[in-house]
Amino acid sequence: MAKPCFDPRADGAFTIRLAAPADAAGILAVYAPYITGTCITFETEVPSAKAFAERTAAILREYPYYICRIDNKIVGFAYASQHRERAAYRYSADVSVYVEPAHQRQGIGKALYTVLLEAMTEQGIYTAYAGITLPNEKSIGLHKSFGFHDVGVYSHVGYKSGKWLDVLWMEKALREYGKP
């Protein structure tokens, strides 16, 4: 299914590999500031390391999940997850990517998505969906660079930090549509 390792730069400046539940604390260190300091994620409380490890393990049972490391420190991650519960949705998945602000604009998000989308395609997923809290031009730009296009906006769908938030949904076909 998913490739275990990927080094997108000749100088080896960063490496990407499959995540493991043991990586949860490092992943959470990247993710927690997005919870506490932004509206990018609708999560409002930082989960415990144990709960996050369980969440990571649950995702890995069904979907690809990658981390990016620089000097043995996790600086970004990307994963796929269930789009909706009903069986007919099983060929679609949601995607997410997070990179530490200090490491953004270095090709890490693109490298993570390159590996993730390839793994999803190999797994038999047909469509990837991304929900992006508005405004977020950097994320929209990243997704457009991969061929995602807008499918609609959920207006006032979430409430965080004292305000109502909209979410733009984007999609990307990963393969030709035919009988799975």
Could you explain the architecture of this structure?
The protein is an alpha+beta fold and 180 residues long. The chain has a domain at 11-129: Aminopeptidase (3-Layer(aba) Sandwich). Helices cover 29% and strands 33% of the residues. It is built from 4 helices and 8 strands, in the order ββααβββαβαββ. The longest helix has 16 residues, at 108-123. The protein is globular and about 40 Å long.
Biggest sheet character: 8 strands, mixed
In CATH, the architecture of the domain at 11-129 is 3-Layer(aba) Sandwich
User: Helical region count?
Assistant: 4
The fraction of residues in strands falls at: 25-35%
Please tally the β strands and state the result.
8
- Choose one word for the global shape: globular
Structural class: alpha+beta
- Quaternary organisation: single chain
Mean pLDDT: 92
Q: Residue ranges: pLDDT <50 for 5 or more in a row? A: 1-5
Predict the CATH topology of the domain at 11-129. Answer: Aminopeptidase
Distance between the termini: 16 Å
Q: Could you tell me the radius of gyration in angstroms?
A: 16 Å
Q: What is the CATH superfamily label of the domain at 11-129?
A: Gcn5-related N-acetyltransferase (GNAT)
Instruction: Trace the largest sheet across and list its strands.
Output: 1-2-3-4-5-6-8-7
CATH level 1 name of the domain at 11-129: Alpha Beta
Give the % helix.
Answer: 25-40%
Order of helices and strands: EEHHEEEHEHEE
